[in-house]
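Expect chain and fold; see below:
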Amino acid sequence: MRKTALVFWTTLFGVMGSYAQNKQLLYDFYEIPQALMLNPGMRTPYDKHFGIPLLSGFSLQAGTSGVTVNDLFANDGIDFTTKVRENVVNGLRRNDEFGGSGQIELFTMGFRSRNRPSDYFSFGMYGEGFIAQYWPRDLAILTFEGNANNLDRRFSLNHIATQGEAVNVFHFGINRELNRNWTVGARAKLYSSVFEFKSASNQGYFVTTMGEDNILRNTLVADVRLRTSGVQEIIDILEEDANTTQADLTRTLLSRSFLGGNLGVGFDIGFTHSFGRNSFITASLLDVGFIYHGNAIKNYTLRGAASNEGVEIILPEDLNDFNSEIWQELVNDIEAQVPFDTNEDAFVTLRPFKVNASFRYNFGAPRSRVQNCECGVNMTSRTDNLGYKSAVGGQFFMIHRARGPQVALTGFYQHRFGNILAVKTTYTVDKYTFSNIGLGINLQAGPVNFYVLADNLMGYTNIPDSNYASLQFGFNIISWNSN
């Protein structure tokens, strides 16, 4: 039974994938307007842009750290239970995680100020979400092996950590070119939370020792908390046995997405600085903010300490009165010492802020600004500040998570083929893989812009054995600077 439960956990979490939310292929790919969302201080060679609603920006990331589907289900003659024990129970650590993330841009627009051409304004709305589960190593071992052969070992409840959310974001940003060497930007954000759940910084342990009245003595010390908002409301709707369930769910999700849920505020800042003509450094700080959760709250707590040696039976007197009440007394005793409670207390969650930084060196003479692609479409003009034929550089990424920062390092090469096509390749090292090769393609046909970016290309040759995958794409209409 316990092995079946562990297999279920492993399969469920493995499907979810990872949620690092690093978009290294898009970062500073400044021919794509969506790159402004990663650095509001990016160079902006546009006069204006307009994203195709619901199609301008879509991204999905998935993967695992520490184990893959192939590690468990490969046809290699090894017993499945052995694979679970070696690759999961004993192979994963408490910092290994499983989850998933996605983002969809509902609409986006940008335009250059007529009174002050050095200013570029952008605004829009997008929805995003993620779910994450850190591997509960100690509890998995306890589930798989039991406690009889683990006397005096403390199984830590600190290994319990999970988080997930869905949020709609309204934003407005300003990008300003201060001079030839400096471009800065900032973006204000209004968050409308659809749902959120989080359990982190838990404390306590479970330990089995030799008993005095019985053979074994079990001790539980717990300070565990799960905070949720919007989750129970959605569960209640899904559990309805009514013809209106789908309509009720749609209405609730839309209401909570458009300022009817819990609200918060935040901001992004960033800059680009050039050294001479061809060398650039950039940096950005994203999602510095919070959400106040005051409605549709349901929190769960497990706090207290209890030690018990099981049912105490006095022989032979209790043999004639051995009934379910004895077991119920045991349960009541434990619940009184370690109560499981719920409450509706409001809470505040900080946004998972992100840091980006990069160095870029452009080289190679740029092509002519106006070029015919021999496909019947005359390409639009570009600003001289966009001009490069090739570029190389590196990028640093960090995101704050429940168990500390996650970091990724990327090297990239970018090349332009006239005014029609730009290609970017990346090599990224992070906690999920040391062999992440990505490819991004940006196509400009007249005012129509299309981009597609894919990570960890080598993993597509054997998806079940891959730790990570990422895909982004979108369509925009762009009017380029004419000066």
The chain has one domain: 2-480. The first strand starts at residue 46 and ends at 51. The chain is about 15% helix and 45% strand.
